[in-house]
Design goal:
about 270 residues; 4 helices
Length: about 270
Amino acid sequence: GGKKKSDKISVGRHQAATRCSCEPTMAKLEQVLILEPPIELKFKGPFTDVVTTNLKLKNPSEKRVCFKVKTTAPRRYCVRPNSGIIDPGSMVTVSVMLQPFDYDPNEKSKHKFMVQTVYVPAGAADMEAVWKDAKAEDLMDSKLRCVFELPFENEKSNDLETSKSAAVTNAPKSEGLPIPKSVSTSLDDIEVRKLMEECKRLQAELAKITDENRQLKDDGLRLRKAAQSGNPVSSTSNAAVRDQGSTALPSLLVVIAAIFIGFFLGKFIL
């Protein structure tokens, strides 16, 4: 009759958590239960209303296990169930309910929970008898710390980063940006076609001038022959024609070379 009411399983109502110091005990045995989560209980705000997180206790052994859930801040939490018996291979889900409070992000939570367990001896009448008769070396315990989180603060910072990146993405493009590849390619094709046509035209002119040059040479030969017969006017005409023919071809070659050099220099610089 000396046990607290909170040590009993109560169905259908919340139970206040049992106080514990959560200091190291004389427990010699390793915890038989598998806890999920194993290390910390996370409570996600806002904390203006009750926030619930679940603690799963699984019994992988072949014996029945009696458990208690205790905390360093019993007034701040309700636990359902806060004690009970888990059959071999079974699992119990414990709901831990954090009561509303004024959350201070600069204050770290120091709240801790402890799950204390003991094997149920054969022929045990009830849980009260099990805990009453349990020896210190038969007890097993696991400790968990409490963590408070405010998801909307993280979401705010994420939203801010997202909006910044969106602003950068949607920023108006500057006029000095490179021309898209497809556009530049089409421009290059047009320039090449123009140059090809210009080359063909120059080649035609070159052929024409070559023919004229050949004709002039033939005329020059005839004039030389005439000069040999003693006509000074003819020799003067011959010299003039020869000079005209010799200067026409180099001038055209210089023009063609200048066009090609200008084209290639322009391609490399741009």
